[in-house]
Amino acid sequence: MDLDAFRWLLTDDGQTLLAEATALVDSGASALAAGSALRRTTSAERAATALTQVDLRVRAVAKFGDLAPRMYFTPDALEQSTRLRVAEHRAGRYTAFEATSLIDLGCGIGGDLIAASRAGIVCAGVDLDPVRVAVAEANLAALGLAGAVQVADATEIDHRAFDIAFADPARRTGAGRSFRVEDWTPPWTWVEGLLRRDACVKVAPGIPHTLIPEGVEAEWVSDEGEVKEAALWAGRTATVARRATVIGSGGLASLTDEDDPGPAAVGVRPVGAYLYEPDGAVIRAGLVTAVAAGVDGGLLDTKIAYVMGDSAFRSPFARGYRVVEELPYREKQLKAALRERGIGRLTIKKRGVDVVPEQLRKRLALSGDNEGTIVLTRVAGEGTALLVQPF
User: Fold this and answer.
1) Which of 50, 135, 313, 337 could tie 295 with a disulfide, CB 3.0–4.6 Å?
2) SS3 category, 376
3) Domains of the chain (ranges plus CATH)?
4) CB 207 within 8 A of CB 220
5) pTM above 0.85, yes or no
6) pLDDT tens digits for 224-261?
């Protein structure tokens, strides 16, 4: 979608066509049928623009909830945008530090601006892409939110007048997604400079701990059990070294390095009554031993992110399982044991062992009426299979 096509979509005629496209899709019409119907009154290009926007709005519900049907998107920008609940958490941290103004240096379609503006923060955003700037401006207007956006190079903006600076560097090249900081736009050297002030920078969850500058807080965030991002907090917004934040239907919880007694304090435990699987954000933040301390447990192995305990605890930071029994680890004997127990539907979890669950499940060729979960891991250096039951 080019800039002229998007601007036309915002006109009265464009909005009428978008409403027609939405009604057709909502009625169950196929993309082919909807396109044919729209082309009776408009060009093929404009029909495609409207239908693409309807499709993007449907896809965006997973990220933006009930705001999505009123918003505008481009395919790439939707993929790169922050999930609203994560952006709202970030905006909550801004307000906790009494920030009243924010500049988004690379605002994309305005996802983070929306969350900050809804939190009452005065917002401004810049982006090099004129289409994304136009979309961000339209999104703020569509949601009745205050904020200013303009086309500009983030690296040339004087951001000192704003309480907080936020940036989400692009991590893509012509070859696709890149995990090398050398490929970021703006580059890592610019990010390091930004982190010398009160700022937050969104980065990939796989960022190496060794790359994080001294005095900067690294926060890993998961939403409904899926790690979504990491964020680097600098200046007065940095309160700890490492933080894991988990967001779920029940709310939000954080665990930090201040909660972590370290491996020596929790130790290694043999197989016990309960196994805990830490959330991905906890693992990325290196806080598995903090979870172990929280459930009065220990590690199965110092290099494997499973926690073992003797008591049942419910924790927002880990999924708990009751250990039913230990099964044979060798595939032939494991298959026989599972068949003996009538298990036909099997969930396979694994850490620290060279197993591909989908391939193993196919080879096991199980049949039966019961459902089961097995954990394949190492205990004292030996492959181990545990039959477990979620609680």
Assistant:
1) 313
2) strand
3) 3-70 (no CATH), 78-254 (3.40.50.150), 258-319 (no CATH), 324-390 (no CATH)
4) no
5) yes
6) 999 999 999 999 999 999 999 999 988 999 999 999 99
